[in-house]
Amino acid sequence: MKISKYSIRKLALCNAFISIAFLCLQNVQAQKYGGNPVIEGIFTADPCPLVYNDTLYLFTGRDEQIEGREGFLMNEWQVFSTSDMYDYTSHGSLLSIEDFDWAAGNAFASHVVERDGKFWWYVSLTHKNIRVNEGFAIGVAVADHPLGPYKDAKGSAIVTDKTPNAIPLNIDPAVFVDDDGQTYLFWGSWGEARVVKLKDNMIEMDGKVQTLELKNFFEAPFVHKKGDTYYMTYAGSGYPSKTEYATSKSITGPWTYQGVVNELLPISATNHQGVVEFRDNWYFVYHNAQLPTGGVFRRSVSIDKLEYTEDGLIKTVERTKTSVPAIDKSGKTIQTENSKKD
User: Deepest in the core among 164, 214, 258, 271, taking most CB within 10 A?
Assistant: First the structure.
């Protein structure tokens, strides 16, 4: 059978369209779930929430370990977004180990912050050449939009095993830009917490690394501010970890221990959190291991309400399977198909 040039061209165009559609689906996928975990399809962990242009972005790690095997296997970070706390769009992997020439592996927890119209993505990775203790280092990528493209902002790590007053495991960076514009980099693990000021360029330390005194601290520091109070949440009480917190009237402390925010998780030994205000609602973003075949090394991002007492203390989070309600542009709860069934 003879095939015309028109037919060949038509077939090629169809194949091209299918390929493009497939690639688009790989990189941008919308899901309507309305439950916890809020992300399905892949295993996600160590979430960092960020609000920008009336959209909530979730920056997460990705657990790739095979079911039944031990150890964390993490090579990239993922980005998701929502405008109503119900529909979540996956933007795929926007940053990976390969984006840092100095890095050898282990794409552990990260944190994204906006300053002066740029987005700074701080990451923890093992270093190719510098290893005194565990070999982990902290670097940063930068972009003009939360969805990138991101590039290594410095070309080398900010913190390594050779940084004075570094710790054996330099992971879990958390960055906070105070009201006066001063930026602070927090990090820590294995019971040791550190903080250092950053210069305005966001890639260099401005002064010496300071030791943080936090009761029960284990890892995963995260700072947010409500009113005139600073809240330091962190994984505490050893491993497995709860989420605990302290408060201060100054970003530099001293920090007063206040109690537990999130109790031990049923399966996940780690308890890594982020806190965010979105349209006058406060949310606690964390991971558990509640997807089918989930486990200690196969975690999943979830979201529940964060509530405060009248005197400004954080109530213990009530974990749910339904997650938080969908909201409209004013932040009010709206009906969804799932909420009608609940």
Answer: 271
Query: For residue 168, is the peptide bond before it cis, meaning its omega torsion is within 30 degrees of 0?
Result: no
For 340, phi then psi, to 5°, come to: -70, -30
Residues facing 139 on adjacent strands = 123
Measured CA to CA, the distance from residue 19 to residue 129 in angstroms comes to: 40
- pLDDT on residue 30: 58
pLDDT lower than 50: segments of the chain: 1-26, 339-342
What is the per-residue pLDDT for 165? 98
| Helices (H) then strands (E): counts for the chain | 2, 21
Phi, psi of 11 (to 5 degrees): -65, -40
What Rg, from alpha-carbon coordinates, does the chain have? Answer: 21
Q: What are the phi and psi torsion angles at 81 (to 5°)?
A: -145, 155
Phi/psi of residue 300, each to 5°? -145, 135
Distance, in Å, from the CA atom of 231 to the CA atom of 313, rounded to the nearest integer, reads 9
What dihedral do alpha carbons 24, 26, 32, 36 form, nearest 10°?
-150
Query: Where are any strands of DSSP class E within 83-228?
Result: 87-96, 103-105, 110-115, 118-127, 136-143, 151-152, 174-177, 183-189, 192-198, 210-212, 217-226
89: helix, strand or coil: strand
pTM of the entire predicted model? 0.90
Query: Of all helices (H) and strands (E), which one includes residue 305?
Result: strand 300-305
- What pLDDT shows up at residue 337? 62
| Of 246, 287, 257, residue with least CA distance to 270 | 287
pLDDT value, residue 335: 81
Tokens representing residue 129 in the block: 């050449």
Closest by CA to 130, choosing from 170, 88, 91, is 170
List the structure tokens of 300.
């999943």
Buried b (16+ CB within 10 A) or exposed e, 243-253: bbbbbbeebeb
